[in-house]
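Please predict the structure of the following assembly.
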Amino acid sequence: MKDLFLKSDELTRRNVVKGLAAGLLGLHFTNDLAHAKTAALIGGGKAKSVIFINVSGGFSQVDSFDIKEANKDANKASSPIKSSADGILVGKYFTGMAKHMDKFAVINSMCHTQGTHHHATYLTLTGYESRGTIAHPELGAWASKLGGKGAGAIPPFVKIGNSGGAGRGFFSSQFSALPVKDPTKGIQFVKTPKGLSAGDFKKRVSYLDKINQQYEAKMNNKITKDYSDIYDQALKMMTSRDLAAFDLNHEKEATRERYGKNEFGNSCLLARRLVEKGVRFMSLTNGGWDDHYGIYGEFKDRAVDLDQGVAALMADLRSMGLLDSTLVVFTSEFGRGAKLNSQAGRGHNPLGYTSMLAGAGVKGGQKYGKTDKMGGVAEEKKVHPADLNATIAYAMGLPLDHIEYNTTGRPFQVGNKTGKPVTALF
Amino acid sequence: MKLIETDDGLILKFSCQSCARSLEILAEPCLFECPSCSQDYKLRVEDGDICVKAIDKNTTKKSSGQVKNNSKRKIRTTPPVANAGRSSRQRRKKKSSSTAIIASFFVTLIVLGAGVMWWKSLDEPESYSIETSQSNNDEAIANTAGDTVSVESASAKTVSAHGDFSQVKTIFEESCVGCHGPKRQKGKFRMDTLAGVLKGGSSGNPAIVKGNASESLLYKLISLHAGDDDIMPSDGDPLTKNQQTIVKNWINAGASWEGTLVPKEKLKKIVIELTDSPFANKISVDLTKSKNQSLASQYVDSLIDKHLKANGKEPGVLVSDETFLRRAFIDIAGRIPTLQEFDRYLSSKLDRLALVDDLINSPGYISHSHNYWLDALRVKERVAKNTLETYNNWIQQAIKQNMPFDKFAYKLVASEGAYGDPENASVGYYLRDDLTGFMAEDSLSNTMQLFLATDMLCAQCHDHPYKKWTQKDFYKLLAFTNGTNVNGRAHNHRETREMVKILKPPSTPRKNGLIGYYKTIQAGVFKGGSGSIKLPVDYQYDDGKPNELINAQVPFGNPVQINYNKTQPNRKSKDVNLAMKGGDNDFRGRMHLAKWMASPENPMFTKTIVNRLWDRVFGSPLVGKKLDMKESDMGDNPGLTKFLNDVMKLAKYDQKVFMKILFQTKAYQRAAMELVEGKFYHPAPVVRRLTAEQVWDSLLAVRSKNPDVGVGQGKYTKYNLIYKEMVNMSPAERIDYMQNRDKRLKEAKKKYEALPGVTLSSKSHRASMLRPGRASFLNIYGMSDRGLIDGAIQEATIPQALHLMNNDLYLGVRKQGRHNSFLYDKLKQKSVSTEEKIKYIYNAILTRNPTDSEVSLAKQHLVGSKGLDQETLAWALTNSHEFKIKR
């Protein structure tokens, strides 16, 4: 049935919708509080910081954290070893992480239907399927939008390394991630050019102020105001003490070695330093897991860096007492086929794969959900990436029912409307 | 033209615009024609203004809109109009309505009350429906008239038959002689002479029987039902009822003939509605002529100023030559001028028109427009299976050739074929979206938004909550593209299998790589769109059932004539449901869709591109939103919108011509204004931050002597070459080719570069040719990530400030080895004073001379023992607000 009222007058209708939206927002605050309460009651809301590790390319669950006895190839090649948690076996490559499995909740029943890297990564990071007509914000952007305070001069959302993803989506630029391209170099161009003394730079800035003031006297608009603010903030950042967090040279050489002096190790170490500073959401990437051909060639080499970095990070978070307030997320965009293909590799497999959570109230040492005999298809207690998003948001105490509208008035929620937090993990 | 008050009421006196005969007519709403030349006019009264509009007789539309009472034909010619011997006029007289007197009384009152107002511009938001209703009347009249004539006295016969042949001649020349004439003789039939018509074609029978239309094959064929397989003309629109009647009458009257007919292009029918516009009543105006361009732009100004005045606003002041130079460079060439260009243009009084002309024909225009369309079309560097380099290249070449926009849009939406073939590279439009998952729906929604500013997005899944579109509307539209095979292969699987055989098992990554590579080269978009689609399984409305097969149709404008029969072997069977039996691969739905879309007849197409280009030039859309308008939306200044739509049609969708008209308006030359909430009267450009690409390219213009080098070069990509080389090879040769492809590619490059006009490589540093990575300069400055249409943003962020403050690379006052900037060269000259140095730095970075106070400020703060601190000055200007803002 066509609703004539709906078609009668676009403007009026829009106003009505706007009014409704405002009402919802008003209502929302009460919901918000209620939610925060329930979250606290059953263990959510403890994550002050999130370290989101995107193991990208499609990480083989059957060779790592979901090795099945029936899967002969995987069993033989990746011969599972015992971990610090009863009943959780891990692939032989993950000796470091094995020591911390008592803190990890292992979700073996992750699944969705996106078979390509781009679409699956988008889904994993945003909770929404990738579309051609809307840009969804990723979790970090939600975190900064929904009450994410920056840590001093550092914004709440930091992307370390060459991590992909959707970014701020339809949110405004202030919610986009601060990119740290190279973890050993910190924020790009945050230091004055080489050979320029602090005095010289000061002189530059004060001269810039003068000509900008002259210009603003003639032309004062939103653009000039915005850039005045942004330059002030950038200058503050350049001289901020918080910047020291980005300098890995403050760490002992032994620590650097423990994390591994490679991009991923450095990223993990930087993430830990930022957690200490109180940064809300850090996203890091460990890539290259697209093992279509000869999976047992390079898998073990890549696993070394991954295992070393995560293990060192977990050890530090534990020993520094930060794990109670930090959620560590370990996930890939999808898993890999349970059966080897003719190239001795494994194909993309979104039907069943593994994600793991640790810290911030998550009960470690547990397995959640199940795949079939071979480890390729999720069977019990299926968890969709939208659920994973909702679970992370829940751990952070974000209001899951809060609605944000894009410019055309479509409603969106963190963790998608469909995502349900897996509270059993807490 | 004059209004005279007489005892009979108000009389309008004016001279006919096509034959200059002086006419008088009662000033009341009516349609009338000039007795000498048959030019039709429509007289309307709106808000107390009397408006007369010339009507082109050919602007009949087939749509079946509702007839409005007030636009019915009411002819009241005044006594002085004599010599009305023509039958058509007499016929019309018969139809004059009895309501006319009441209407006339009412109107007269309005006119007197409002005072006499002359030929004022007329907004006609409903012009579409009015024209429609008129054509219905035409048909009605023609039909009754036909009957009357056939029983009329013989005395009128010769006159009307002779007169009618001129009309028949036009119809034949425009619609028939192209295929049945001197150039082509389809069906072995010629219609350019009477002899040919009487001889007939391959049927062996004469095409007409004099005096008996119903026995004449020609008449039978032209009067078949639209969509019938045998209808003539077989291409293009069927003849209107009116035209059919003219032919029928002519045959019945004995089919007299004069001379030989020559094929003529059907003129695109445009009626310029604004009677005081410089092109009123013209069917075609050559807008490539600069005289006509300046007439148009003056008229645009007059419409803007009138609008301002009516709203109690004053137009602003014109900007200085310096400001105009910078503005025009940024808007047209996408960057500021180099120091050399600054000197060249400002050495004497700036000829603004000549500057616009230079810039719009410069490589900078190509680069800047390229950025614009890459953003609008969401062109990524790579998508799942393909690199979009070839498509990207196609877009650039289309801009370079200044491809008319209707053709450009058509080529994208109707695209089909192998991607490697440079002629087909516009299939990248669909490769970009892959059309898997929801992308088929999304891609179509984007097409509708980009080219028709019609937002049907919500209707993908449910009836639109606040627009009229239903989910069924959307699915009918989706039926046009449904079944499109994206990433299909140009060559059949047998060939691939053969190649696999030649390579021999076992397969290795290397061999698989070869096959994969071959598949990539052969990828493309195939199958034309089936014309049918199933409603979704969860369809929830009463007008269809879940999973029901429905046929394609457009949601507005002229319905698409769909001939589902075309491919049926038994041509006589009228199985209109062929498409419903699982679709028809030869249906070519995308072509139908594109034809309907990229047409001057489409009520949204012209308005959408006009709106986009206005926004490109002035910084805010003229009507609604760029991606969302209603059919009735004409913006705050409907007259201006209407005129620009006409200009776009007259310019035949030449984007350069259209923008040149805007660039030479006074409005464009006024001081930029900040866009504020509330009404904006488009008096001047809007203050904008430079786009990411403009910032980058402007920094390049400070640093480089020829920032445009390499732009627009590169006719073919590597993939084009490989495709061209491999297309005619056997499977074995292909394998050999691919195994040695580096070597073979080098040979191919040599071969093609020897051809005239072909360049393959392009070493440009302009933003349009870069492949920016994450967190690159362009990225940080808000270049679109090409996810959404018009995705670029100009918001301020901290990393932007850090980049400009702390990356000295951008300065251009330093020595750069062999490639020093103009600025560096000038600063290094002997005996340059401090004042001159300051001036040069201002010229190069801000495109203007410093004021006295700026010079003294620099001297006061930046001159030390080593002279002027050039770097600090250059740094400060580069980081200044002024550098980032287009004023």
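The two ends of chain A are 45 Å apart (CA to CA). Residues 1-41 of chain A have pLDDT under 50 and may be disordered.
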